[in-house]
Amino acid sequence: MRKLFQSFIIIFFLFKCLFSQSFHINYEELGDNCFYNLDYEKSFEMYEKGLKNNPDDYNLNWKMARLLVNLGEVPGNEKKNYFSEAEKYANKSIKLNPNRSEGYTFKSAAIGNLAFYSGNKEKIIAANTMIMLLKKAIQINPKDHIAYSILGSIERMLAGISWFERTIGKIIYSISIPEGSYNDAIKYFLKAIEIDNKLIRHHYELGLTYFDMKEYQKAKNEFEKALKCPIQLKADYRRLELIKEKLNIISNR
Known about the structure:
Layout: H1 2-22, H2 27-36, H3 40-53, H4 58-72, H5 80-96, H6 102-114, H7 120-140, H8 145-159, H9 163-173, H10 182-195, H11 200-212, H12 216-227, H13 235-251
Helix pairs in contact: 2-3, 3-4, 4-5, 4-6, 5-6, 6-7, 7-8, 8-10, 8-11, 10-11, 11-12, 11-13, 12-13
């Protein structure tokens, strides 16, 4: 009888172990798979469940920030609250681990998108804040291609501001507009492409920079490279439409 009881105990614990292992769910991995399959809603659900179990998980926090930024960048889906929530998750990820770059990068992305809902003075402040965050991200992780790409976009935007607009802006808002440089923008985009040459955004933004500089053949080359890249983000569909429009303009020059 004693041996039989011991056998039951062993079987019970074996079943308990098997049961607990079979029902262990990796919500981060499930969320990642949904994100890369462009199912953002399901990805949100998985990350949210993961955060309920472990609210102080660094990866879940920055990945939720990334997801919310991408949700808000889907054409027709733009909502300010996506970006404000993204900034909250990015802030928490920075607090949890200030020695990783992702929190700084996606906080910058959230701030940049929120700036579209703000006045001109707030846009200038946002640009300064973004530059600081992105340079911090790159200092921590020189392989953060997203940080290089966003920094390139800021440089391109600032380079397009005329001397007159810059002077008037300083008079009206009592704040200096950061200097921008097309050459620096190109440098940042090329660095991003060196790290990851399959992301449509990098080639698209570099193409826009050459287009703004009226270097149309170089712009065409980058746009055509972008067309050959796989779609990795929902916003890529809109980028591809805009690329075709730019190529049409170049071909009709």
